[in-house]
Amino acid sequence: MATSGLSSGDGEAYLLANVGFDEEPEKPRKPKKPKRPAGYRFRAELDVSELDDRGRPGATCTAFAVELSRSNLVIRTRRMSYIDRKMLVAIHLIDDEPTVLFGRVYSCEYDGDGLCRIDLDLEPLPATGDVRRWKAMISRK
Asked: What per-residue string of b and e applies to 68-94 under the rule 16 or more CB within 10 Å gives b?
């Protein structure tokens, strides 16, 4: 129940509300993000390409792997990316053919030294002609 117009001895008006003064006001709750799986340290040179809206790979840039888990890959690159964009990642190890992974950007933040840290949620590799051509092009390098 609210009462207004009560004044104190110095002439100020006060608004009194039916609120318990012993209780703390409820704090707004932030939506909880799912906890990211703990990744293992993983160092490798990568070729990365962001897919456009039609699922075609764009320009390829160099990146470096930081962490790898069963469901996500963390990379460092000079190129920023928007959340929910799709990326192709070619991992160059000692093998004669690079391993290609596909992921969706979960987060992208500046990491220092002109590099961005991109966290990718790994998904099944799309079986499109554009992706196969990109993989063939990367394999020839």
From this structure: beeebbbbbbebebeeebbbbbbbbee
**What's at 12, amino acid-wise?**
E
Model pLDDT for residues 14-35, shown as the tens digit of each residue: 445 555 555 666 666 666 666 7
- The DSSP secondary-structure symbol of 84 reads T
Q: How far is CA 98 from CA 25, 116, 132, in A?
A: 56, 23, 13
CA 141, 112, 39, 30 torsion-angle sign: negative
**Class of the domain covering 40-140:** mainly beta
β-strand pairing of 72-77 with 115-123: antiparallel
CA distance linking residue 37 with residue 17, whole number of Å: 47
Q: What is the pLDDT of residues 82-124, one digit of tens each?
A: 999 999 999 988 867 899 999 999 999 999 899 999 999 999 9
Half-sphere exposure at residue 20, Cβ-oriented, CA atoms within 13 angstroms:
5
Domain boundaries, the chain: 40-140
